[in-house]
Amino acid sequence: MSDRKHISAEERREKRRQSIHKSWENRQLYALKDLYEDTKEGKTIWFLTSDILTPKGYIERSFSTNDSKLFVKGQIKEDTIVYNISITTKGIIVAVDSEMKGLALSLYQLIVSKLRIRNNEELIKEFRKKRKTVERKQAATRKTLKKVGKNDFVIRTNLIRCYDKNHKLEEIVGEFSVLSDSREITIQVPAAYCPNCNCYFVLKSQYANIEKAGSPLFRIISSEVFYKRGRSAFDMKSESILKANGYNVAKANGMRDDQRQDILKKIVDGHVLTKLQIISYLQFFQATKRGMPHYEDAVKKWEADISFLENYAIGSENIKYVDSVTMKRYTLV
């Protein structure tokens, strides 16, 4: 009778799997070692394809050669950087763990030194600089917040009066309480505060979105203001600013929606005009040209651009809670 231990089929399969896995691990390790040696000797030349450092301390870097790729994702924690590295070389995806983790990190550091890009110390220094800039901006924003007891928002088709008088408006977010399905919810929409007028404004088009969300839980005060039809200095000035920056709705120009809206983004991001200023301009153009057959296409384009701006960069402004609303209607006569 044989003394050899009986091995079940399942155990044989498991041993075979372990053997294959070990063989695959060795194959990955040798491939990584070859890549490191070739890089060290200058046989493999790396290129930096992306390099991102966010103000929150996240790092993303990717490098490539003819047959290899290395992607690094890291996070700055106090004085150190915690890295996750993934590597593909000659079609082999390297699982960077245990022994290979140290070798992969050494390869990354070698590439950084050869390409002469920012090392760990420089990345941490730059991150701290970015963080300080963000903190300064946040502190400046907090200083502009106004503590008021009753925030009276004025609903208007546009803010022409303030802009005509060169008032400096502060862009904020108005927080409105409404009753929806028997429960109270809050709706946030872009608004503005005018220090000269000492009141808050929200565009009529945005107020319509509040009404769609539910029944208003704030006071509404109505009044009417009339102004005469005509091409004002505001109209001429605003149109020239937009045109000077490349904005055009003329059919002959053939500019697509995305092209016009890219221009509007640059105007807002470049602080040439505020978002609410542009919306007011476009709504003014609509009001004076609506119903004219020659301007039918332009009116549609202005409408599309207003909708785009209303949803652009929501959440970057200050928030104010709304207690009451004053409604003013401008009528062309």
Task: Offer a quick outline of the entry.
This protein has 333 residues and is of the alpha/beta class. The chain contains nine helices and 13 strands.
Describe this structure in words.
- The protein contains nine helices and 13 strands.
- It has helices at 9-41, 99-115, 120-144, 160-164, 204-213, 233-244, 257-269, 275-289, 296-310; strands at 47-53, 58-64, 68-77, 80-89, 92-94, 152-156, 170-180, 183-194, 199-203, 215-216, 219-227, 318-321, 324-332.
- The strands form two sheets. Strands 6, 7, 8, 9, 10, 11, 12 and 13 form an eight-stranded mixed beta sheet that branches. The protein has a five-stranded antiparallel beta sheet with strand order 1-2-3-4-5, covered by helices on one side.
- Helix 6 crosses helix 8 (275-289), helix 7 (257-269) packs across helix 9 and helix 8 (275-289) packs antiparallel against helix 9.
- The longest helix is centred in the first third of the chain and has 33 residues, at 9-41.
- Mean pLDDT is 75; it is low at 143-151 and 222-236.
Strand and helix layout:
Layout (H helix, E strand, L loop, with lengths): L8 H33 L5 E7 L4 E7 L3 E10 L2 E10 L2 E3 L4 H17 L4 H25 L7 E5 L3 H5 L5 E11 L2 E12 L4 E5 H10 L1 E2 L2 E9 L5 H12 L12 H13 L5 H15 L6 H15 L7 E4 L2 E9 L1
Parallel strand pairs: 6-9, 6-13, 7-12, 11-13
Antiparallel strand pairs: 1-2, 2-3, 3-4, 4-5, 7-8, 7-10, 8-9
Helix pairs in contact: 1-2, 6-8, 7-9, 8-9
Features:
333 residues, five-stranded antiparallel β-sheet, single chain, 2 domains, alpha/beta
Give unreliable regions as ranges: 143-151, 222-236
- The termini sit apart by 114 Å
What's the mean pLDDT score? 75
Task: Give the % helix.
Answer: 40-55%
Give the helix tally. Answer: 9
> How many domain units?
2
Radius of gyration: 31 Å
Care to count the β-strands?
A: 13
Strand content: 25-35%
N-to-C order of helices and strands: HEEEEEHHEHEEEHEEHHHHEE
| Computed structural class | alpha/beta
Biggest beta-sheet profile: 8 strands, mixed
> What is the approximate shape?
elongated
